Automatic annotation (TrEMBL):
This is DUF5753 domain-containing protein. It comes from Streptomyces sedi. It holds the Pfam family DUF5753. Residues 4-100 form the DUF5753 domain. InterPro entries: DUF5753.
Length: 108
């Protein structure tokens, strides 16, 4: 089952609008360990280029969801995202790693 899920990740990573990057264990204590999973939501601009809504951080919490839209909060999560991005393999290396792990599951 997991080999199918990993193979599916490799397939969808080839789509133009999908980017999958794996943070290796060797990266150590990167920002994502502290933040946990999160998304930075950006909304469509108006016709004159102004934001319809402020960018918002969405995070799943243990006791509920968080929606953070204060500039300082957004800045901290954007900094964390850049740190995670820098710690991650590039897209091609990530795809190779996922395919390699999928192959190990198929053999084992």
């Amino acid at each position: 089952m997991i080999e199918y899920q990993l193979a599916r990740l490799v397939n969808v990573a080839e789509l133009a609008n999908i980017s999958i990057r794996v943070v290796p264990l060797a990266a150590g204590a990167h920002a994502g360990i502290v933040t946990g999973p999160f998304s930075i939501l950006r909304f469509p601009l108006t016709g004159d280029g102004k934001e319809t809504e402020p960018p918002t951080v969405y995070a799943d919490g243990y006791t509920g969801n968080l929606y953070l839209d204060k500039p300082k909060e957004l800045e901290r999560y954007e900094t964390a995202f850049r740190g995670i991005w820098q710690a991650a393999h590039d897209e091609q290396a990530s795809q190779r790693l996922i395919a390699e792990v999928a192959g190990e599951y198929e053999q084992g």
